[in-house]
Design a protein that fits this description.
Largest sheet of chain A: 8 strands, mixed
Helix content of chain A: 25-40%
Strand order of the largest sheet of chain A: 6-7-8-3-9-10-12-11
CATH topology of the largest domain in chain A: Rossmann fold
Shape of chain A: globular
Oligomer: heterodimer
Number of helices of chain B: 13
Number of strands of chain A: 12
Number of helices of chain A: 11
Largest sheet of chain B: none
Strand content of chain B: under 5%
CATH class of chain B: Mainly Alpha
Number of domains of chain A: 2
CATH superfamily of the largest domain in chain A: P-loop containing nucleotide triphosphate hydrolases
Helix content of chain B: over 70%
Structural class of chain B: mainly alpha
Number of domains of chain B: 1
Radius of gyration of chain B: 23 Å
Strand content of chain A: 15-25%
Distance between the termini of chain B: 23 Å
Structural class of chain A: alpha/beta
CATH architecture of chain B: Orthogonal Bundle
Shape of chain B: elongated
Radius of gyration of chain A: 21 Å
Chain lengths: ~325, ~300
């Protein structure tokens, strides 16, 4: 097991009270496997990613409980200096916005070279050669020429490739891809996903893929966790999630996917929106939007029920005593 | 339309689209800015080639009874002063003092200000609070009195004036850089750099300061005018560069008693100060417009 996240809790101390952005989540990622994480905006996906990198802005954020075991050691207890050697070297992250994630005053190639030089003792010439090699690996045409381009001279897809080249330059064991295709055109999205898939095979790395796009999950993930308001509501192998979604929220997400429901009819939507994390309902967090709610949902929060076949669901519908 | 298209094509040549080359293109389009640059360049050329441009010596006295207070003529275009020295020659040499002091004092204050500002903005919290309160406290000290006291305590020299003007001028630069850093710190590429394992020092010197560099250069250029004025004021009060080294402020001071009889002694160095400050300000304004960060995203 490469990554073991146990009971992770990250809170943000705001003027209006503490906000539990991530509220006691558990998941594991095996070496070479891809875990997909889905959910609406504000459900805690990105905070989970930043928590693993230990880059939650503090203040106001803070990891208050749990452990993150990476490659056998708890990275939450590493001193900052040690953690710096993990970042970019063993765990890398690709962000959503390829435009603003590159420094505008340096050339793209120079930034890839910088990422390489940070964790290796290569000289200027060698690191430059390796940077060009990385640009070629992420399928940027004419890498020697593109090396000298500034970020504003490249398209969004090209910039995201540069970001991927930077993230993978030290061959990390775990890549966190935080909405890697959200800001891109649909045709470019497909290319980036294909690139990530190929590089994953080539480097044998594990991936934590964060997205709100179920199509991306279907193409890449082995296991999926569905998050809602800071909690995991469903966890399943990818085929099972799509064939037998158990949680009403997951069912709603799948139903609202174009091409998944009857054509010619309006797409079904989940009514309402994610609750304010500072004012969560007392029972199940999804209760006020759920179509299958029962009285118990408003009073008591459901635990994660084991449905067998590595399938888990946080819904009272699967309680043994209920059925 | 066609022209802009042509130009875009040229700019998209690999490696030519950097901040500086785009800024340079935009700078050239501004006439006043180019005029400012020409003035500044002219001043530096005069300062460097002063000995070639004039046959006279700036320091040695002329034939005092005969040559003093001669009005502008072909031999002495700007006249002579009370010691019979050629005013134009002294102005040429005086530009050395003004430009030297302007350049080094501003460099000192900008370097100091950038470091303090970047550290303060990046570190935040208690470090930021302490540094900014120090800046507030230093800004409350009346600059002129501090300068007068220090110069009275130590001997007058160009080095002392550079250090004093530099050391009393960095606070506003620190505030400016801190403000920039606070804005840039929020950018994704700073988080991205941290995610790659970059440490604080690297973030400050590789990411924060380079991205504030245009603002720093612009503010430095605008500041040089102020420093030249401060030096002139000090010299006018008799506390600037020690005589007989010519300096523009000193020359204005020397001519003030004979303003009505020998107006040229004060007027020409005074004009030189005005033109120099205007030149630097035009250049600074032009640079600011050309490197306006709105156009670089």
């Amino acid at each position: 097991m490469l990554l073991r996240v146990n009971n992770l809790e990250t809170i943000f101390r705001m003027d209006r009270g503490d906000v539990r952005a991530v509220d006691g989540i558990n998941f594991n990622i095996k070496t070479g496997k891809t875990l997909g994480m889905v959910g609406e905006s504000g459900c805690g996906k990105s905070v989970t990613a930043l928590s693993i990198m230990r880059l939650v802005p503090d203040p106001p954020g803070k990891i208050t409980a749990g452990s993150i075991e990476f490659d056998g050691r708890n990275i939450l207890s590493l001193p900052e200096k040690e953690m710096r050697k993990v970042r970019g070297n063993e765990i890398s992250i690709v962000f959503q916005e390829p435009l603003s994630s590159l420094n505008p005053v340096f050339t793209c190639g120079e930034q890839v070279r910088e990422a390489i030089a940070l964790h290796s003792h290569l000289g200027r010439k060698d690191s430059k050669a390796k940077a060009v090699e990385m640009l070629r690996k992420v399928r940027i045409p004419d890498p020697e020429i593109r090396y000298k381009n500034y970020p504003h001279q490249m398209s969004g897809g090209m910039r995201q490739r540069v970001m991927i080249a930077m993230a993978l330059s030290c061959q990390p064991k775990l890549l966190i891809a935080d909405e890697p295709t959200t800001a891109l055109d649909v045709s470019v999205q497909a290319q980036i996903i294909e690139l990530l898939r190929d590089l994953r095979e080539e480097l044998g790395m594990s991936v934590l893929l964060i997205t709100h796009d179920l199509a991306v999950i279907a193409q890449m993930a082995d296991t999926v966790v569905v998050m809602y308001a800071g909690k995991i509501v469903e966890k399943a192998p990818v085929e099972r999630l799509f064939s037998e979604p158990s949680h009403p929220y997951t069912q709603g997400l799948l139903a609202s996917m174009p091409g998944y429901s009857v054509s010619g009819k309006a797409l079904p939507v989940i009514p309402g929106s994610v609750p304010d994390p500072a004012k969560l309902p007392p029972g199940c967090r999804f209760s006020d939007r759920c179509s299958k709610r029962i009285d118990r949902c408003f009073v008591e929060e459901p635990p994660l029920f084991d449905l067998g076949n590595s399938h888990f669901s946080r819904c009272w519908l699967y309680s043994k005593e209920e059925s | 339309m066609r022209m802009t298209k042509e130009r875009n094509k040229r700019n998209r040549k690999p490696g030519s689209g950097g901040l500086w080359s785009v800024g340079w293109t935009r700078f050239r389009e501004r006439r006043l800015a180019v005029a400012g640059a020409v003035i500044v360049l002219f001043l530096y050329l005069v300062a460097i080639f002063a000995p070639v441009l004039t046959p006279y010596n700036p320091v040695t006295y002329g034939d005092i009874p005969a040559a003093r207070y001669m009005g502008p003529s072909f031999q002495h275009p700007f006249g002579t002063d009370k010691f019979g020295r050629d005013v134009m020659t002294r102005m040429f040499y005086g530009s050395r003092v003004s430009l030297l002091i302007g350049f080094f004092a501003v460099t000192l204050s900008i370097v100091l200000g950038s470091l303090v500002g970047a550290l303060s903005g990046y570190a935040g919290g208690i470090v930021d609070a302490v540094l900014m309160r120090v800046v507030d406290a230093l800004m409350a000290i009346p600059r002129l009195f501090l300068l007068l006291t220090c110069i009275a305590l130590f001997s007058q020299s160009i080095l002392l004036i550079i250090i004093l003007l530099g050391a009393t001028g960095w606070m506003s630069a620190a505030r400016l850089v801190r403000g920039q850093v606070l804005a840039i710190k929020q950018k994704d590429y700073i988080v991205a750099a941290e995610a790659l394992g970059a440490g604080g020092k690297r973030i400050i010197f590789k990411h924060l300061i380079p991205n504030t560099l245009t603002v720093i250069v612009v503010s430095a250029t605008l500041r040089i005018g102020g420093i030249i004025l401060a030096e002139a004021a000090l010299s006018f009060l008799g506390l600037g560069v020690p005589p007989p080294t010519p300096s523009w402020g000193m020359m204005v001071f020397e001519g003030r008693d004979v303003m009505l009889d020998a107006w040229w002694v004060s007027t020409f160095p005074g004009l030189a100060i005005v033109i120099t400050v205007i030149g630097f300000n035009l250049l600074g304004d032009g640079l600011r417009d050309a490197f306006d960060p709105i156009h670089f995203t």
